[in-house]
User: Fold these one by one.
Assistant:
Number 1:
Amino acid sequence: MAELTDSDISGVLQRAVKLSEQQLKLMRELAEEIFGQDTKIIIGVNGSVARRETTSGSDVDLFFLGLGESELDSLQSQQDIYRARLRDAGIKMPANGGVFDEPLRADELCETIGGDNDTNTFITRRMLFLLEGEWIYNQTAFEKLRSDLICRYVTEDLADEKIALFLLNDIIRYWRTICVDFEHKIQDVSKPRAIRNIKLRFSRMLLYFAGVAAVSKTIGMSGVEKRAKLNALFSMPALARIQDVFEDKAAPLTVLYAEFLASIDDPDIRQVLERSGVEGIDTREYEALVAKARDFKDELLTILLKDLKTSHEVVRALLL
């Protein structure tokens, strides 16, 4: 696997952003064409498109949220119509059975935090909405919901010297949930293990770190300022958020992330990684990406331990 030049890295990232913006534009146009001025629904997207990391193998993690007294059966019908239209337009949809298959009432994202009802499905939908979600339809309501969710985590009277610990704990919990669920999912020997592992160690880890990075910027701000800062940072894609927070210190991990994107955009490499079960594990392609994943993790740790330092309140919260 050849090393990328600076020009290659820039090209990989720019191409991914361009493909993502093209898909977002098409999806927004189709949604407006189908639903007109319906104010009772929010359509959003997670995944690579939302993160502006679209590659040739990317699908679209679409989700529907209902506002007010929306009937979920009606929302399901609208979602099915829209998904079918996207397929007709050539947009790749995920396999059936995912956590976004069924619509959800928007207020449940804010109300179901912690407790017995906060299932894996709820924490996944809530965290992905916050950490990487992007609007497709009803932008105003989408952004208000993001603001409401942040307000649920960060009270106005939170002291300036305090971090948004409620939010940080949920971000940590989500990351650990992903890691535990990974071990559960790979018990199905028919599913490709290599591509799952590589995505976990790059895109999922990046998303987690981008959430931690956002919280780290709220120290020394009033509760109101903390909310505003988090709103601004969560409106950015994960990689751009890390670059905004850490500036030049994010350059080494950006290079490694671009190499990851270039690899999964290569049809030959992706085909190897998507082999059933463990067939993709014992390959040169997988081993090369695992080595880069270790370097990527080391770069993230460098930022945490050397740049933020162990005395930083966020780092202390991650440890205990």
Number 2:
Amino acid sequence: MAHVELSLSEVFVPAARASTEPEFDNVGRWSSTVSEADEPCLLIDAETRVVAISAAGCELLCLGEPRTVIGLPLLDGGLRLLDFTANRGELTEQEIDKIPPLLALSSGRLARGLLRVQAATEGAPDSTVDAISTPVLTDGVVAGSLTFFSGV
């Protein structure tokens, strides 16, 4: 019979870069990646402003061009969220707080859920997307959330 011995030692953790420049925080680092991504994804800051969104993300969420929503609060950029009833009414504030990008901000944890979105243009078809969001931390504090979407 084989003998196995296990010992534990401290894990080496490299020192984090200390910089006050925004391009060195995690939100800044993810911004260019999200902007250039082929996948539908979105990056918002702690105030829910859109920091970056991929072209595929704009298309899937019916938001037009990325440059038109950058800097706007997520829900002021033309994103219209609908419930899953037959009437397809707009979500209430309580329901909006539970969508994955915002829930990841408030809880500091991974969040996942389905969203029904409709373009702001009259008569535009709605679509259902699966969203998975993770908080983005800077110095141990939630500084934003990163969300990946998939059409359902």
Number 3:
Amino acid sequence: MELTFWGAAQQVTGSMFLLTLEDEYRILIDCGIDMGNLSETMPLYPGSNFPFDASLVNLVLLTHAHLDHSGKIPNLYREGFEGQVLCTSPTMALTELLLLDSASINQKKLKAYHRKLSKGMAPEDFNFDPRDLYVEKDVYKAVDRFVPIQFHRRFNVKHGVHVTFIPTGHLLGAANILLEVEENGETKSIMFSGDIGRSNYPLLQDPHTVPQVDYLICETTYGNREHQSIQDATEAVEDVIRRTCIDKPGRLIIPAFSIGRTQAIIYTLHKLYAENKLPPIKIFADSPLAQRSNVVYEKYTGFLNEEANDFKREHGSLFRFDTVQYVEAMKDSQAIDNYHEPCIIISSSGMMEGGRIQHHIRANMENSYCTILMVGYSAEGTLGNRLLNSNGNIRIGTREYPIKANIEQTDSFSGHGDIHDLLKFVRQQDKVQTKKIFLVHGEGSSMEDFKSTLNKEGYNQVEIPEKGQKYQL
């Protein structure tokens, strides 16, 4: 069989791996968008969004819902894919929310495209091809072909091929995917890590133990870094709230992904409030997508950790409490600018590349009483990354803004495992039995450093694939 690395190869986002069996049966593991660089750098199949013929793919296995793993699934169906997408039930629910949100954004882009085209703007002047933009009907067509699979159930895909989803934390429903393939009387096992979670992360179960495999595909987002502990994260939030909203009448803005990060932060704030560690400061949860995601989290509490289940039984809800206000309409989002009391604003997106967070940032960039707290990874080229690496000024749209707000960062709410979590994951594999370890989903330095760490541990069969590189397994 042949494994081709079509995404997240020597970069963080865009996970997409194609496994072609000897009988030409093709399994695509994840089908994600490259969030840092939305323009393809690979030669594409003629007339396609992909570097392969989508109609020849037989099956998709989805590790979790985030768009850098799921965001091109509707495109796959539009280009002739007729198979199923296997994933867990929470992943199915969250992926539908994320894809519908993307479709809504695409619809606005299409309207703007046709409006500007009618006014004489040339098609080549746009930074996207309208044929690549899926809309709501495409999402529903795709999601209708999703099949939910239970964790730890060894599912027979076809004769000689079995798949097992293993909980990995990171996000509600996220999984490591184990593939067992029998060919020519020999069974080979392949493990795709997806995104590896952390121990003791808010709401989520710890990553489960994985079995010994022949081939391991491992993410490396934080392959050379350590996170603050979750306890430190809670204390850091208390500290920044005190400095920003209590010691002075300021506002704390937290850019956060609507699915995963926002739930962890609001749940942490709820716990602080319940323990009387947080004064009655208004919290604006400004993301309709986060509200819909909260419903999914509350529905699938059986997938959450024991602490979260105990907390819900005691307080009735994970995410609703006295001082939090969920903002639905855009006019109410914009009206937050007129709220002059100390407050906390949690809004998407986490990398600031879109969503309501942008108008909050623009409105408060020159406010010295404001703190912008970055709580996760921002890919190179995104507004979040540029803000962290600015020299005192930043361009948003056509305007240059002087930065007077305080910019702070913590990775303690990251759902990605750090170097210790990654090592724990890899150490479950025998140094001799494992034939190859492939490192993906990381920046170059992170991959190289993690490879060096693994080599020192005695894992000498480590590869860092290039995009489009093929391996015979």
Number 4:
Amino acid sequence: CCLQVLYDSPKARQEVEQHWQASGGPHIVRILDVYENMHRNKRCLLIIMECMEGGELFSRIQERGDQAFTEREAAEIMRDIGTAIQFLHSQNIAHRDVKPENLLYTSKEKDAVLKLTDFGFAKETTQNALQTPCYTPYYVAPEVLGPEKYDKSCDMWSLGVIMYILLCGFPPFYSNTGQAISPGMKRRIRLGQYGFPNPEWSEVSEDAKQLIRLLLKTDPTERLTITQFMNHPWINQSTVVPQTPLHTARVLQEDRDHWDEVKEEMTSALATMRVDYDQVKIKDLKTSNNRLLNKRRKKQAGSSASQGCNNQ
């Protein structure tokens, strides 16, 4: 087994609760038991989980050496990850941190199962966090009005990035020099600037490229839902996806030095996509100190005063 120790807090309990709720789902790391205990005079939660001895998804592909990694294998892996996300979304849970280091294999064996772990940023998507008297609808950005859709679409963006890397060995939002650059990357994500360069993409099917385009939409509301993703022919007919050899294993081996940077960039990008709606405080019109609103107030006060004088 694997032991995870968390200092007890409402956030830690929420993480354990979300993971426990998802624990019976397919392709999700199972929690076996949870205990309370003390560690260094602090109350802790001890989470006993199944031990994932097979390592991370991309490390396993890196270690293949000369053995070809095919498009069909990539489709089967994406189907497995999608199955985990589909279960979570059916339970009204958005994972919000689907990234390479959270995708682990049960063992080193050939028949090992890929599973999703780490529910530190998971969020229940049914609660409406904006049930406060000061909630002024026409002041709210559209995505804040639909946190459920917004949070779940974060997982779909992750599926797009992971699928892209699986098919070529490098991420979609990447600089031409081969170095990941944070400020530039954020801008490229926002503008949806990525391509399918040769030779890595020359043999990849059009179905795969189309699916990536539908997942990496810049507008979160336009991205595929998990149901649409699972019904896409490249996923639900993965057994007939061409067994085209990919450049992935070679590129991952050559770019080992940059891989940690790539993972950091994905972590950073996901952090900008997560919006904790219960932390959002929306000002009511009476307490707002908006410059234009203040100008309008003065104008209204002036017209009221002059109207009062006329009445007298």
